[in-house]
């Protein structure tokens, strides 16, 4: 047995010894594609065979070991691997409420000025976005306060002695830059503004969903043939 097969066997052995346990395999299609394909290496074939043996639980009691896997390419899976999974569940794109919650989760404790109505508006605007798309969106938005601070030409004192970027009409605005404040030893006193709905609108104006209608049709067809709704 090669090293890769041993790792697979050891993984399942550890799961049995620490049962109840869950083994999760992400992007399983990259590991368990169709056998007989021209680009399949001998090492890949052996790993796949060992995984099939372990999932079948030959000579073992796997009642308390749950194997989960995820794929975006269900038709690429080897038929034997597909049959090893008792359930093949299609997880659709997040709905309105789920997207609204995802924006909140990814923002976390980051200071922002968004209201419940703003979060709902963002969720409606991102119909067709995946969870990954929303994560990328929020990640980009998190840089907006930094960009504003770097480009600002006016600052005002907020929260006592902290300097926050602002427009020229802001009461107490002082014409200066982040670099000038830093040169005066005030770098630690510079406070980026809280994230606003405008920041999200700016990012969403250039972002598009990564999942196409054709991709969704493939998943829906596979679900009708082999799976069930999640």
**How many domain units?**
3
Largest sheet: 3 strands, antiparallel
Mean pLDDT: 90
Broad CATH class of the largest domain:
Alpha Beta
Large-scale geometry: elongated
CATH arch. level architecture of the largest domain: 3-Layer(aba) Sandwich
Annotated CATH homologous superfamily of the largest domain: P-loop containing nucleotide triphosphate hydrolases
Uncertain spans, ≥5 residues at pLDDT below 50?
none
Query: Could you please say which CATH topology of the largest domain applies here?
Result: Rossmann fold
- Secondary structure tally, helices: 10
Order of helices and strands: HEHEHEHHHHEEEHHHE
Which features does this protein show?
single chain; about 230 residues; Helicase, Ruva Protein, domain 3; 3 domains; three-stranded antiparallel β-sheet; elongated; ATP hydrolysis activity; MT-severing_AAA_ATPase
Q: Could you explain the architecture of this structure?
A:
The protein has helices spanning about 5-15, 40-55, 80-85, 95-105, 115-125, 130-140, 145-150, 180-185, 195-205, 215-225; strands at about 20-25, 65-70, 90, 155-160, 160-165, 175, 230. A three-stranded antiparallel sheet has the order 5-4-6, with no helix packed on it. It folds into three domains: about 5-90 and about 220-230, 3-Layer(aba) Sandwich (Rossmann fold); about 95-140 and about 195-210, Helicase, Ruva Protein, domain 3, CATH 1.10.8.60; about 145-190, no CATH class. The protein is mostly helical and about 230 residues long. It has ten helices and seven strands.
């Amino acid at each position: 047995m090669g090293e890769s097969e041993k790792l697979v066997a050891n993984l399942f052995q550890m799961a049995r010894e620490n049962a109840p346990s869950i083994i999760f395999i992400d992007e399983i299609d990259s590991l368990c594609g169709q056998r007989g394909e021209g680009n399949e290496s001998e090492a890949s074939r052996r790993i796949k065979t060992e995984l099939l043996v372990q999932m079948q639980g030959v000579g073992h009691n796997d009642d308390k070991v749950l194997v989960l896997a995820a794929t975006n390419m269900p038709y690429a899976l080897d038929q034997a691997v597909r049959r090893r999974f008792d359930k093949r569940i299609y997880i659709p794109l997040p709905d309105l409420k789920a997207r609204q919650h995802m924006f909140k989760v990814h923002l976390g404790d980051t200071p922002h000025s968004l209201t419940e109505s703003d979060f709902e508006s963002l969720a409606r605007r991102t119909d067709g976005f995946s969870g990954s798309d929303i994560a990328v969106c929020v990640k980009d938005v998190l840089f907006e306060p930094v960009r504003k601070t770097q480009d600002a030409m006016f600052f005002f004192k907020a929260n006592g002695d902290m300097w926050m970027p602002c427009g020229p009409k802001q009461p107490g605005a002082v014409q200066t830059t982040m670099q000038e404040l830093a040169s005066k030893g005030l770098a630690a006193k510079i406070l980026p503004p809280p994230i606003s709905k405008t920041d999200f609108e700016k990012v969403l104006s250039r972002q598009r969903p990564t999942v196409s209608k054709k991709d969704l049709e493939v998943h829906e067809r596979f679900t009708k043939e082999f799976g069930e709704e999640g």
